[in-house]
Amino acid sequence: AGRLQGKTAFITAAAAGIGLASVETFLAEGAKVIATDIDEAGLKKLKGAITHKLDVTSTDAVSALAKDVGPVDILLNAAGWVHHGTAIDTKEEDWDRSFDLNVKSMYRTIRAFLPGMLEKKKGSIINIASGASSVRGIPFRYAYGTTKAAVIGLTKSVAADYIRQGIRVNAVCPGTIETPSLGMRIDTLSRQSGKSIEKVKQDFVDRQPMARLGTAQEIAWLCTYLASDESSYTTGQVHLADGGFAL
Ligand code: NAD
């Protein structure tokens, strides 16, 4: 405990999955946590964090909230959306929504919080990318994989620009993680394919060399390391916590 003592963290998509596990772990390590999500009911269940409703697709909302909460030490960009489709069946609106929610959201939060970090001459930004990105090409992840590769490019660019000003920026690539959104994907795929829920879930397990899904906690531990001073010599990198997905 205490690895994040004295630090303030701002987290997007904090009401479920990887964001939620990170809220809980950061709190346990002594951070002050500002947890944000569009899901207000989900936020209400969080104990110990300061919560704010935030839709990361709104530039105005992100900059207004950043002004309101003031400077932070840690920014964890967890918001992201999985579109299922190929180059032929991905509609333009789904492509645009993928970029808006998965990439432009990070443009917004980084622009809003980086000035405060530069004033402190210190900050850690953690962007959740994915194994489906420039790391691996995965079937039916055309828009998603493209956006998550963009997250890696964005991460390296910001890291390079501010490396001498105390700012560290890292990307985390989870493998297949048991979260509410994965559960919804399994339900949808089962309905569309006529396969049972168990079979669809097994297909996700089978693509993991460790032969199991990851937990949100396993990603939160990596985020905690990257948020803490333990990783003070680490920036601009892609960190896999993927159960061997990239092997
Ligand atoms: P999740 O489904 O468990 O939670 C997503 C959260 O995002 C929800 O609380 C939802 O309300 C919130 N959200 C949705 N739209 C939003 C918006 N416009 N503004 C703010 N919040 C919004 O998610 P998860 O599976 O833990 O995914 C978190 C991140 O990890 C995403 O970027 C995702 O792409 C990435 N990721 C997940 C997996 C996986 O297998 N679950 C694998 C690789 C990467």
CATH architecture grouping: 3-Layer(aba) Sandwich
Read across the widest sheet, the strand sequence of neighbours is 3-2-1-4-5-6-9
Shape: globular
**Average pLDDT, all residues:** 98
- Helicity level: 40-55%
Q: What is the H-and-E element order?
A: EHEHEHEHEHEEHHEHE
Radius of gyration: 17 Å
Number of strands: 9
Organism: Variibacter gotjawalensis
Keywords: NAD, Oxidoreductase
InterPro entries: NAD(P)-bd_dom_sf, SDR_DHRS6-like, SDR_fam
Pfam families: adh_short_C2
Structure, described:
The structure is a single chain. The chain has helices at residues 17-28, 40-44, 59-69, 92-120, 142-162, 180-193, 197-206, 216-227; strands spanning 8-11, 32-37, 50-53, 74-77, 123-128, 167-174, 177-178, 214-215, 238-241. It has a seven-stranded parallel beta sheet, sandwiched between helices. It is built from eight helices and nine strands. The radius of gyration is 17 Å and the shape is globular. The chain has 247 residues and is α/β, with parallel strands linked by helices. The chain has one domain: Rossmann fold (3-Layer(aba) Sandwich), CATH 3.40.50. The longest helix has 29 residues, at 92-120. Strand 1, helix 1 and strand 2 (32-37) form a beta-alpha-beta unit. Residues 12-13, 15-19, 37-39, 42, 54-57, 78-80, 82, 101, 128, 130, 174, 176-177, 179-182, 216 line the site of nicotinamide-adenine-dinucleotide.
